[in-house]
Amino acid sequence: MAMKIRLARGGSKKRPFYRIVAADSRMPRDGRFIEKLGTYNPLLPKDSEERVKMDIERVQYWLGQGAQTTDRVARMLEAAGVTEKKTRSNPKKGEPGKAAQERAAAKAAKAAAPAEDAPAEEAAAE
């Protein structure tokens, strides 16, 4: 059985609240789970201790049993110091989009055009 440690959404509309659960990966997100491991309340401030609460011993047990974590839960475990921080690579994150690149190229071409015309105008004035 492929186990996952993931978030199960609760709460009402526009008021999210998540349970951190150990579940079979084939079950639906908010469906059946094996064990509740903690809670996550994204509406609380980031420095609040109540924002993320986990039973670290049970999380380590499930990790020892071969459970995989989702990306968001893995980041929470890294912040808690349970797992080592993974290096993530997203080389396109810092690049501007296609339209922004086109605007930058047009702006550079426009800035270069008057600079090229200036020496020609000086030569014509002499």
Please describe the topology of this protein:
Elements: E1 3-10, E2 17-24, E3 35-40, E4 52-54, H1 56-64, E5 68-69, H2 71-80, H3 98-125
Parallel strand pairs: 1-5
Antiparallel strand pairs: 1-2, 2-3, 3-4
Describe the structure.
This protein has three helices and five strands; from the N terminus they run ββββαβαα. The chain folds into two domains: 3-80, Ribosomal protein S16 (S16 Ribosomal Protein, Chain: A), CATH 3.30.1320; 95-126. Helices cover 37% and strands 21% of the residues. It is of the alpha+beta class and 126 residues long. Strand 1 and strand 2 form a beta hairpin. The chain has a five-stranded mixed sheet. The termini are far apart. The mean pLDDT is 86.
Task: Give Rg in angstroms.
Answer: 26 Å
Tell me how many strands there are: 5
Helix count equals 3
- Low-pLDDT sequence parts: none
| Major beta-sheet overview | 5 strands, mixed
Structural class comes to alpha+beta
Overall geometry: elongated
Summarize the structure.
With 126 residues, the protein is α+β, with helices and mostly antiparallel strands.
Output the keywords:
126 residues; elongated; 2 domains; S16 Ribosomal Protein, Chain: A; alpha+beta; single chain
